[in-house]
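2024-03-11 09:14:02 INFO worker-7 job=invfold-0412 stage=load source=structure_tokens
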């Protein structure tokens, strides 16, 4: 298939490019590089030994979208391009709605213009909000607690209505749990441009000496060791889910959400211990008050993805920590 990948130079996008190219798909990237480096695509080309075209452009700009659609004529789109920092979304809600919702609207219009009717969308487990029950299944109520989460839910609604209005269209809504880890080559990985918001890249930066210690955001949650639990998923498993979702989209119509997680969760303290094992060093920690908006536990019921897409996670926690350490220790400054 010919697959246009918006945001393909980002963390999850770059891993997905390798999986797509490995399966023989023809790939074109559209990225503004607002949160990524062009060096990523050089590395993807080297690792895949394959042909990869790219367009620099913003998904909010009609001309950039039209150029990519006309030049590449995709059969399907994977839409990663978006903004993802929860705190920033509270300070700049219009910016987040503009990119995450407006960008999706513009993309669908550009797809309609060239008759491309299949899209895989990067959604998030954050659309569920405070758990009514765990594990979350796809029928769990969606009550996101942040602006970021609401932009993702709104984009899901746009995609669902778009697919409903035309029975030939397909929108696969992948609700990611917590992506971590790196490609086994250690050539591509997560490269936060600022102080990491998320746990795993923060631990990795402590291990490599860039930060003095990890702040554990609360140890008084109602969990076995008091620290927050998350369903961490290896980014290569997540990347594979997109390739399998494309196969699903080839033979299904309509919009459908899928949880992409492992069905197992780990606490902050368990993640620190696992990382210490991977890097052979002690990770200094300090317990601080809870982070606003955090919940105690998240856990995926990923049985729908297994039953309908044939996807399930195969990587272990050790794979996640070892690959993160391999990437961080060989690229202490990311792609710089
Ligand atoms: P990332 O920031 O590494 O990648 C996003 C890419 O999109 C970057 O290359 C960035 O330059 C590009 N981009 C941003 N705005 C753009 C615009 N207006 N036009 C064109 N390109 C633009 O993030 P990621 O972790 O790879 O996440 C990819 C997607 O998955 C995002 O939509 C994110 O919301 C979603 N998601 C991520 C996580 C996570 O924890 N990483 C969890 C759930 C969902
Ligand atoms: C965060 C976002 C969520 C987003 C997800 C993936 C918030 C409130 N939520 O979720 O919307 O979908 O990232 O991008 O920002 N932790 C520490 N110290 C740290 C960092 C994290 O103790 O320095 C703890 C957190 O309290 C949490 C766990 O580690 O218990 C995981 O945190 P994180 O990686 O930020 O993911 P989420 O909280 O799931």
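2024-03-11 09:14:09 INFO worker-7 stage=emit residues=336
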């Amino acid at each position: 298939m010919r697959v246009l990948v918006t945001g393909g130079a980002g963390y999850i996008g770059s891993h997905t490019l390798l999986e797509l190219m490995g399966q023989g798909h023809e790939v074109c990237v559209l990225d503004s590089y607002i949160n990524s480096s062009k060096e990523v695509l050089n590395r993807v080309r080297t690792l895949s030994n394959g042909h990869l075209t790219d367009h620099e452009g913003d998904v909010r700009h009609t001309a950039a979208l039209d150029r990519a659609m006309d030049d590449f004529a995709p059969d399907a789109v994977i839409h990663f391009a978006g903004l993802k920092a929860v705190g920033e979304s509270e300070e700049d809600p219009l910016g987040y709605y503009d990119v995450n919702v407006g960008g999706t609207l513009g993309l669908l219009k550009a797809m309609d213009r060239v008759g491309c009717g299949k899209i895989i969308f990067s959604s998030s487990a954050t659309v569920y909000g405070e758990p009514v029950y765990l594990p979350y299944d796809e029928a769990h109520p969606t009550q996101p607690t942040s602006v970021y989460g609401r932009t993702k839910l709104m984009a899901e609604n746009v995609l669902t209505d778009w697919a409903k209005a035309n029975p030939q269209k397909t929108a696969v809504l992948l609700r990611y749990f917590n992506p971590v880890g790196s490609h086994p080559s250690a050539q591509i990985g997560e490269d936060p441009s600022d102080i990491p918001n998320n746990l795993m890249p923060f631990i990795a930066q402590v291990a490599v000496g860039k930060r003095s210690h990890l702040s554990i955001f609360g140890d008084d949650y109602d969990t076995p060791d008091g620290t927050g639990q998350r369903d961490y998923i290896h980014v290569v498993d997540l990347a594979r889910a997109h390739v399998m979702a494309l196969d699903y989209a080839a033979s299904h119509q309509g919009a459908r959400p899928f949880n992409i997680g492992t069905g197992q969760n780990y606490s902050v303290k368990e993640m620190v211990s696992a990382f210490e094992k991977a890097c052979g060093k002690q990770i200094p920690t300090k317990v601080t008050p809870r982070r606003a908006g955090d919940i105690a536990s998240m856990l995926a019921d990923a049985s729908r993805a297994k039953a309908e897409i044939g996807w399930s996670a195969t990587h272990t926690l050790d794979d996640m920590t070892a690959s993160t350490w391999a990437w961080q220790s060989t690229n202490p400054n990311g792609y710089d």
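2024-03-11 09:14:09 INFO worker-7 stage=report msg="Residues 2 and 74 are 5 Å apart (CA to CA)."
2024-03-11 09:14:10 INFO worker-7 job finished
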